[in-house]
From TrEMBL:
Protein name listed in UniProt: RGMB protein
Membrane topology: Lipid-anchor; GPI-anchor
Keyword Disulfide bond among UniProt keywords: yes
Compartments it resides in: Cell membrane
The encoding gene: Rgmb_1
Entry annotated with the keyword Signal: yes
InterPro entries, alphabetized: RGM (IPR040287), RGM_C (IPR009496), RGM_N (IPR010536)
Location of region: Disordered: 83-112
Gene Ontology CC annotation, any one: side of membrane
Organism: Rynchops niger (Black skimmer)
Length: 401
């Protein structure tokens, strides 16, 4: 009897640790990507570890509503993912869960060891339209850059784009070819080359594979989202995500990459559009503004094979406003592209470019960029205003330097 009383008393004094079980589960699954191979395997391992943790606390948490909700939630998730109750479980020990081919695992290890930098800094770069460039520094430019140009060229990744003229008589170009080289990295991946051209957007590398070095969770993976129109690349070992789309006859690209890798390059690799922007001689501007064709006039040498639609400032503004309600630089890029080319696909490109920013850019307050004010502000933020008079015969679009 004294032993039973002591046991009961000890149970009453032992706290319910369901919150710790939940925190460990979130930690084990926060880095997983449902679009990648191996997700179900790792998720089920984490679920079984979660279930084991709740079982160990079943007696002390018997009257806890959070505990009972967790138990029901685990059962539902196991059914949804077809997880067996028996099998391997994930370890909550950071030392044993460290994955050398997972950048998020590196960040977690640094945090566990108490290092000063506990969360990585990510950078974003995007190229779309004819062509508009958003650099790693959130500078926005519109450039000519005809031919092949390096978008990124560091010790881990190379991205080259090829641009061709869009309309005869205009200096505007658009991207019709993208070449990406993921350089070999330790035991995580061999060198992989990807190439996309107009009307050929493959969901595989040039060697026919869809991933890097094998493993239960691929350290490098290509995922096809829309057949022939949209692919994603996930390089877990360097924490990098790449989106490539084809809209109309041209390609567009968006990328998120940790700063420590994006800035790891030699002095000879300084010509990178994502890092330093377009050379001044390649930027389309006139005293800081982009000149547009006169409203209502066909562009010179318009081909009968490719009849360009005639947009005025008013109709182009209306068309772009259908897709984008915020009049930021993406909205005005859309208007510029319609007036320059007459190709309505550039409207969808500008809209998709903004959506890619919202998906990949790490700082929500910097998603929208507004044209520079007269005092020379950088235009990043949500407080700037930009007005266009309907009486103007051409739109003035500010270019970010």
């Amino acid at each position: 009897l004294p032993s039973i009383l002591c046991l009961a008393d000890c149970q009453l004094q032992t706290p319910c640790r369901i919150q710790k079980c939940t925190t460990d589960f979130v930690s084990l699954t926060s880095h997983l990507n449902s679009a990648l191979d191996g997700f179900d395997l790792e998720f089920c391992k984490a679920l079984r570890a979660y279930a084991a943790c709740t079982y160990r606390n079943s007696k002390v948490c018997r009257g806890n509503l959070v505990y009972h909700s967790a138990v029901l939630g685990i059962s539902d998730l196991m059914s949804q993912r077809n997880c067996s109750k028996d099998g391997p479980t994930s370890s909550t020990n950071p030392e044993t869960t460290h994955d050398p081919c997972s950048y998020s695992g590196h960040a977690g290890a640094r945090e566990h060891q108490g290092e000063e930098q506990t969360s990585p800094t990510y950078l974003f770069c995007g190229l779309f339209g004819d062509p508009h460039l958003r650099t790693f520094k959130d500078h926005f430019q519109t450039c000519k850059v005809e031919g092949a140009w390096p978008l990124i060229d560091n010790n881990y990744l190379s991205v080259q784009v090829t641009n061709v003229p869009v309309v005869p008589g205009s200096s505007a170009t658009a991207t019709n070819k993208i070449t990406i080289i993921f350089k070999s990295y330790q035991d995580c991946t061999d060198q992989k080359v990807y190439q996309a051209v107009t009307d050929d957007l493959p969901a595989a590398f040039v060697d026919g594979t869809t991933s890097g070095t094998g493993g239960s969770i691929k350290s490098l993976q290509i995922v096809e989202k829309v057949g022939g129109k949209y692919v994603e690349m996930h390089a877990r070992y360097i924490g990098t995500t790449v989106y490539i789309r084809q809209l109309g006859h041209y390609l567009m690209l968006a990328i998120r990459m940790p700063q420590e890798f994006a800035m790891a390059y030699e002095e000879s690799q300084d010509l990178q559009l994502c890092v330093n922007g377009c050379p001044s001689s390649e930027r389309i501007y006139d005293n800081g503004h982009l000149p547009l064709p006169v409203m209502g006039q066909l562009l010179p040498q318009a081909s009968a094979t490719h009849p360009w639609s005639v947009y005025t400032l008013e109709t182009a503004t209306t068309k772009c406003h259908e897709k984008m309600l915020v009049k930021d630089i993406y909205f005005y890029s859309c208007v510029f592209d319609l007036l320059t080319t007459g190709d309505v696909n550039f409207t969808a490109a500008a809209h998709s470019a903004l959506k890619d920013v919202e998906a990949l850019h790490p700082r929500k307050e910097h998603w929208h960029i507004f044209p520079s004010n007269e005092s020379g502000g950088d235009g990043v933020g949500t407080g700037s205003k930009f007005f266009v008079s309907p009486g103007l015969v051409c739109l003035i679009l500010a270019v970010f330097l």
